[in-house]
Design goal:
The complex is a heterotrimer of chains A (293), B (149) and C (818).
Chain A lengths: L1 E5 L3 H4 L2 H14 L2 E3 L12 H4 L1 H18 L2 E4 L2 H16 L1 H11 L12 E3 H17 L7 E5 L8 H4 L14 H8 L3 E3 L10 H6 L2 H17 L4 E4 L2 H18 L7 E3 H8 L23
Parallel strand pairs in A: 1-2, 1-3, 3-4, 5-6, 5-7, 7-8
Chain B lengths: L6 H4 L7 H5 L1 H5 L5 H11 L2 H4 L12 H5 L6 H14 L5 H13 L7 H9 L10 H11 L1 H5 L1
Helix pairs in contact in B: 4-7, 8-10
Chain C lengths: L24 E6 L11 H9 L4 E7 L5 H14 L3 E6 L2 H14 L7 E5 L1 H5 L6 H21 L6 E4 L3 E5 L3 H12 L3 E5 L22 H14 L3 E4 L2 E9 L2 E8 L13 H5 L3 E3 L8 E3 L1 E2 L11 E2 L15 H5 L12 E7 L1 E4 L3 E3 L16 E3 H8 L20 E8 L14 H15 L4 E6 L9 H10 L3 E4 L4 E4 L6 E7 L4 E7 L1 E6 L1 E3 L3 H8 L26 E3 L9 H20 L2 E4 L4 E3 L9 H5 L5 E4 L4 E4 L19 E3 L4 H12 L7 E6 L3 H10 L8 E6 L7 H9 L4 E6 L11 H17 L7 E5 L5 H17 L2 H13 L5
Parallel strand pairs in C: 1-2, 1-3, 3-4, 6-7, 6-16, 7-8, 16-27, 18-25, 19-20, 19-25, 20-21, 33-34, 33-35, 35-36
Antiparallel strand pairs in C: 5-28, 9-10, 10-15, 11-12, 13-14, 17-26, 22-23, 23-24, 29-32, 30-31
The chains are: A alpha/beta (293), B mainly alpha (149), C alpha/beta (818).
């Protein structure tokens, strides 16, 4: 299990705790992570909306980098996953676009060939590490109730993100997070509008207050089911639920107190890795209250 | 370079409104309405939609596509419209700033001293170097630099 | 496949018919108003026809199929002594019978008539190239005249029809069809898969627009079926196999055992004692039944049955004898076995009915997760006095009467994610249901979320207006999502009101999904057994959507009810009576005429090798090993022609579709500019009809193609293809029904084998095998046909002269026919 680690922009700069907890969890599970000079993926919510061909070219550069080493890419952010998987698929299938992109990359001694896959950490954990292995490695138990938020870019549209699970008659409903956390001995809860967007992209592009309205809808339903914590698999979703929770509490005089934990932070807890590497300092909604029980 | 949608297919929309009914941005932003954008495009051409700044409120969550009975790529349509808006010179400030940051630094966020401090405390190495000239070079050739002005 | 001495067929001396008389061919080119003349020059085509050998008369007329047109032809036959007639107009699938009848009336054998399809296959598909369309029409007329020269008079044999009918399916359509036929005096076998007849109509509560009680109006008909002396009702029965042909079907029916005899008085004492429970299918799982049960109170036959999967007794061992003890009349019999019954019938009516769409796939609506989201059929059972709640509208979670109810329309219909068609009845069903709720629970608020309301029938619009007046709220915009309030079980519907362009959130107690209708899942079995074509949506296809709505393309087999497409009770009953009438027409004649297109074997050439017999889908060729002769059983022969190409000795002559006739058509086509032409063999039932459909839909495709019709793709002899290439024709398309859908059961399997062999041969000879294409095209696939021609045209455009020459040399050297 050896992957090119794609950190994206937000994690190494703003939330390095996700990086360190991922590295710690990887060590515990026997996953080897290789670093490469990747650039911004680029985000599907910024450059892609301004100029599609530029987005495709930059994504191709990142894919070509990993291809050079013959490694699949492991992503930690929904946005990166979405961008890289889509670019990978589009370039594999459309010769004209591939040619254009390779013309751009050639001066930098890079070429997209379509030889690698892009996998989100959740899929690597579910499929490559396996739920059994997680069950065996779990060291500590926690009883807090977790609401899982997949976000959107993780699995939509299914024809790009999970083409082999595609069924026109049935919408794809993701379950990897619940499966992983259950295997790790944690408790997950279902809640209404589980598949609703967190709103992050609206905030980064236009209007943070409006984005928070979406987040508020999610928090409402999570709280309705007495969730005590929120699990995310993306730093943008994290920020929206973490910083957003504080902002929403202040604006509407509410008292939501559901700490937001990145998937590798949660696993790090269960696998009992070095506490310092979990980086909970950066969590604005404090995690400590959870961990008593 | 790539046409996101086949215009003929848009005619298949029968205004069931499952898209707008599921849309998070429609929930948060008065006047943001994917169904309406699609219909306006068809009936009145894309000029009316492209100049609407609320268009950029789309979170690209793709739930509209997921639920559309005619399997229309609604998100792709909105993305194409935003591309067109950008071509005509309209890009929201934050989007322009974010894109420029990628163009010049290869990252979408500003690197601060605090970042290095946090990393050190966690036992992580320094931030990876990004070959900025390469990124800039590619994005100049694709035309992004010109577009952003 | 080796060489054959010469192609089969009869011809006379040049310019004369087989019987030696001098040919006097009349050609009529139809304008069909502007349908044909609008895209090509009919007068020019007629002028051209007059230059052909044997043609003594060539006219163009406005509407040749009209009375005056037919009279003109008849007059010309009598006065001008015509002995062959060619009409260049629409598809023979439409008017060949019309013109054949006209010829017969004028004293000319109807098999001396030929049609050239210059409408569906020419004027309609080449709307924008008058010159090329005219040239093509001329070619098609030339081919028709070439065939006409070689046509011989034929006599049709008559076959007796068994005056008995099989009706498959005992819903209201099957019930009506059975009663109509039985009343007309025919013996009817009604085969029903379930334990009782009644179908969907027995499940619903009221009917629209009259608000009649459904089972109340159905039950008398069901009883009538049960006691009618001419109807043999077989329940728990399915069709196992079907052999034969129109008027003479042999059907094997498998009847599952009931384990309860006819002496059952329906008292129900047994069920009271039975310890086993299972969900009641009739109530959509909303109530339970026992292992020994009756499907519903008004069941016909009124006899209980035992579900052996649920019963504690297995393998003939009686471990639990409670029902045996309870039954006063001793009518329970665990020793009953499955039976097979062999029936002989003249006609079959397929009434297999419908299932409803399962909305669990639409995960955003919560069906299956939220107890208060139900389907419209489940609602019918809830509101039905005979249902699980004795007609009280209570919601599943807490058994309370809902204060607000929402109906969601178009669930599982009009969608590429489920069924693309509109299910016809859901709008009216909802309006009816809403009015029922309003009637009994006037305090309950009712919302209907719709996209379009389809209230097209008699009394429908009135019912809709009444619903609006009663305060039922119609909101245009289907909810994107349904979420549940955990504490109350209430549902929140989130969506957009498109007429106000505003988002809504409605909280309701009960949400009813108006689910669409699908063909019954097991109708696929019936489809296969009867070789019936169906559309992509799974409903059976009718012979012609407007003019033959209850006929199937197979003679003697008819359709009625939802098996043909979603429809309400009135339309099902109408179709059922129509189908019964069609069957009646057939059976009342007492005999059916067999079209004179059957195979004839020349005993002098036949060596008894039995190659033909092995490929006949009907087993219609019998081989006498002693006398080394094969003989065709005329009545069983369907005329597909699959046997003829198998014969290495040229002993099989297909009447009316002989080798010589087909080769003459190819020669006519190849006379001019062969290297730019595509020859397409199309089978009468599927691909020719598919090409017709392209025409009807005005799909445009390249003008290079010329179609030769055979009854079946199995008729296409590889020698025809080789002959075409030897004449320099650029490309050949062999097309037929989809595998599994062949009108002649499985003849197209031979087609595939022969084309594969041809490809191998072409590759061996160094020829471009893309010049020969094989395509399976159904009658509904007009677009596919157009695309095939477009693909072939690209091949033709890229062909070099050298390649054409190579083909000419390769197949001429072999000394092939003519």
């Amino acid at each position: 299990m050896r992957y090119a680690l794609f950190l994206g922009c937000l994690i190494p700069v703003k939330y390095p705790g996700f990086e360190s907890s991922t590295r710690a969890v990887a060590e515990a599970l026997g996953i080897e992570l290789v670093d490469m000079p990747f650039s911004c993926c680029p985000a599907p919510t910024l450059i892609k909306l301004v100029h599609y061909p530029s987005w495709l070219a930059l994504a191709a550069r990142n894919l070509a980098l990993a291809e050079q080493e013959g490694l699949d890419i492991l992503t930690l952010c929904n946005g990166c996953t979405n961008t890289l998987k889509e670019a990978n698929l589009v370039l594999k299938n459309e010769a004209a676009l591939r040619k254009n992109v390779n013309d751009l990359l050639r001066p930098y001694a890079k070429e997209f060939k379509g030889e690698i896959r892009v996998r989100h950490l959740l899929d690597v954990l579910c499929e490559d590490v396996g739920l059994e292995a997680l069950r065996k490695q779990a060291r500590k138990k926690y009883g807090f109730r977790i609401a899982c938020h997949y976000g959107c870019h993780f699995y939509r549209p299914p024809r790009i993100m999970y083409p082999d699970r595609l069924s026109p008659s049935k919408s794809l409903v993701p379950t990897q997070m619940e499966e992983i956390l259950s295997a790790a001995g944690l408790t997950t809860v279902q809640y209404s509008r589980r598949l609703l967007c967190c709103g992050s992209a609206l905030g980064t592009k236009v209007d943070l207050e409006a984005a928070n309205e979406i987040t508020r809808e999610k928090l409402f339903h999570m709280a309705e089911r007495r969730a005590e914590a929120i699990a995310v698999a993306c730093p943008s979703c994290f920020e929206q639920f973490d910083r957003g929770q504080m902002m929403i509490n202040r604006k509407h005089d509410l008292d939501y107190a559901m700490p937001v934990l990145f998937i590798s932070q949660l696993l790090g807890l269960v696998l009992d890795v070095d506490w310092k590497r979990l980086g909970f300092d950066q969590n604005r909604v404090k995690v400590e209250t959870l961990l008593g029980g | 370079m790539k046409s996101h949608f086949d215009e003929q297919l848009l005619y298949e929309c029968y205004e069931c409104a499952r898209c707008t009914g599921s849309c998070p941005a429609a929930l948060a932003v008065e006047g943001f309405n994917p169904r309406n954008y699609l219909l306006t495009c068809l009936r009145m051409g894309l000029d009316a939609v492209v100049s609407d700044e609320k268009l950029w409120c789309c979170t690209t969550c793709h739930v509209c596509e997921d639920r559309c009975p005619q399997m229309l790529d609604v998100t792709d349509l909105l993305m194409s419209l935003m591309n067109e808006a950008a071509r005509r010179g309209f890009i929201p400030d934050k989007v322009r700033a974010g894109s420029q940051m990628v163009l010049h630094t290869g990252r979408v966020v500003l690197v601060s001293k605090r970042a290095s401090e946090m990393r050190e405390k966690l036992g992580l190495g320094p931030l990876p170097e990004i070959p900025v000239e390469e990124v800039e070079g590619i994005l100049e050739k694709t035309g992004l630099a010109g577009l952003l002005g | 496949m080796g060489k054959r001495p010469k192609p089969a067929g009869i011809s006379g001396p040049p310019g004369r018919s087989a019987s030696g008389e001098s040919l006097r061919i009349g050609v009529y080119v139809c304008h069909c108003g502007l349908n044909i003349d609008g895209s090509l020059d009919c007068q020019e085509v007629a002028r051209f026809a007059s230059t052909l050998d044997g043609v003594v008369l060539a006219k163009d007329s406005m509407y040749t199929c009209s009375n005056s047109g037919q009279e003109m032809i008849k007059a010309d036959i009598r006065e001008q002594g015509l002995n062959r007639v060619v009409v260049a107009s629409c598809t023979p699938r439409l008017h060949e019978p019309t013109f054949r009848a006209a010829c017969a009336e004028a004293g000319l054998n109807p098999y001396l008539f030929e049609m050239a399809n210059i409408r569906e296959h020419c004027s309609w598909v080449h709307l924008h190239d008058r010159k090329a369309a005219t040239e093509k029409a001329k070619d098609l007329v030339k081919m028709a005249v070439a065939r006409a020269r070689l046509l011989e008079p034929q006599v049709e044999t008559q076959v007796p029809i068994t005056p008995k009918a099989l009706v498959v399916g005992g819903g209201v359509a099957g019930i009506q069809a059975s009663l109509d036929l039985a009343e007309s005096g025919y013996q009817v076998y009604l085969v029903e898969k379930e334990a009782s007849i009644g179908g969907r109509m027995a499940q619903i509560d009221k009917t629209f627009p009259t608000m009649d009680c459904s089972i109340c109006i159905l039950a008398p008909k069901m009883s009538e079926v049960g006691r009618h002396p001419k109807i043999e009702l077989m329940t728990l029965s399915e069709v196992e196999s079907v052999d034969g042909y129109i008027g003479n079907f042999r059907v094997r029916v498998r009847r599952r055992p009931r384990y309860v005899s006819r002496e059952c008085t329906y008292c129900g004492d047994c069920a009271k004692e039975c310890p086993q429970h299972a969900p009641n299918e009739f109530d959509c799982g909303l109530s339970t039944r026992k292992a020994i049960y009756s499907p519903f109170a008004q069941a016909v036959p009124a006899t209980y049955l035992i579900d052996m999967n649920l019963c504690l007794n297995k393998h003939g061992i009686v471990a639990c004898d409670r029902c045996l003890q309870a039954c006063q009349h001793k009518c329970i019999d665990f020793s009953q076995k499955e039976e097979f019954l062999d029936l002989e019938v003249g006609t079959i009516i397929v009434c297999t009915g419908s299932d409803v769409y399962d909305p669990s796939s639409l995960t955003e609506l919560g069906y299956g997760r939220f107890p208060n989201v139900i389907t419209s059929l489940e609602f019918e059972r809830l509101i039905n006095a005979g249902g699980p709640t004795a007609g009280n509208l209570i919601r599943p979670s807490d058994k309370k009467v809902p204060r607000t109810v929402a109906f969601l329309q178009c669930i599982g219909s009009r969608s590429k994610r489920s069924n693309p068609y509109c299910s016809n009845i859901c709008c009216m069903n909802t309006i009816k249901d809403a009015l029922l709720i309003r009637e009994h629970w006037p305090e309950t608020k009712i919302y209907v979320f719709y996209i379009d309301i389809r209230a097209f029938g008699k009394g429908f619009e009135d019912l809709l207006q009444r619903a609006r007046r009663e305060g039922i709220v119609f909101i245009r915009g289907i909810p994107g999502e349904i979420i549940q309030d955990e504490r109350t079980g209430n549902l929140k519907l989130i969506g957009e009101n498109t007429l106000l362009s505003k988002l809504y959130q409605y909280e309701v107690d009960l949400a009813i999904l108006s689910v669409g209708i699908e063909p019954r899942k097991d109708s696929a079995v019936v489809k296969r057994l009867l070789s019936l074509p169906s559309m992509a949506d799974g409903f059976f296809m009718e012979a012609h959507p407007k003019l033959r709505p209850v006929d199937t393309p197979t003679g003697g087999i008819f359709l009625a009810g939802c098996a043909e497409g979603p429809k309400d009770i009135k339309d099902s009953v109408t179709q059922a009576s129509a189908a019964a009438s069609r069957a009646n027409i057939l059976m009342s004649k007492g005999k059916v005429t067999v079209e004179a297109i059957t195979a004839r074997i020349d005993p002098d050439l036949c060596t008894g090798c039995a190659a033909c017999s092995r490929v006949c889908p009907y087993g219609a060729i019998l081989v006498d090993p002693e006398r080394k002769r094969a003989q065709v059983v005329e009545a069983a022969c369907a005329g597909c022609g699959t046997c003829a190409p198998e014969c290495r000795f040229g002993a099989i002559r297909m009447r009316h579709f002989s080798d010589l006739q087909i080769l003459a058509q190819i020669d006519a086509l190849a006379e001019t500019a062969a290297r730019r032409k595509i020859l397409a063999f199309c089978c009468n039932w599927c691909s020719y009809a598919g090409a017709d459909f392209s025409g009807v839909s005005r799909m445009q495709y390249p003008t290079e193609v010329r179609i030769v019709r055979t009854m079946c793709s199995g008729r296409v002899d590889p020698l025809f293809v080789e002959h075409a290439f030897s004449k320099g024709i650029a490309a050949v398309l062999v097309s037929g029904c989809h595998p599994g859908d062949c009108h002649y059961i499985n003849a197209n399997l031979q087609t595939e084998k022969r084309v594969q062999r041809l490809w191998k041969k072409m590759t061996r000879l160094g020829l471009d095998k893309d010049r020969l294409r094989l395509a399976w095209i159904s009658a509904a696939e007009g677009l596919k046909f157009a695309r095939e021609i477009q693909a072939l045209q690209a091949v033709v455009a890229a062909l070099s002269d050298e390649e054409i020459e190579k083909g000419i040399r390769a197949f001429s050297e072999k000394g092939q026919a003519a």
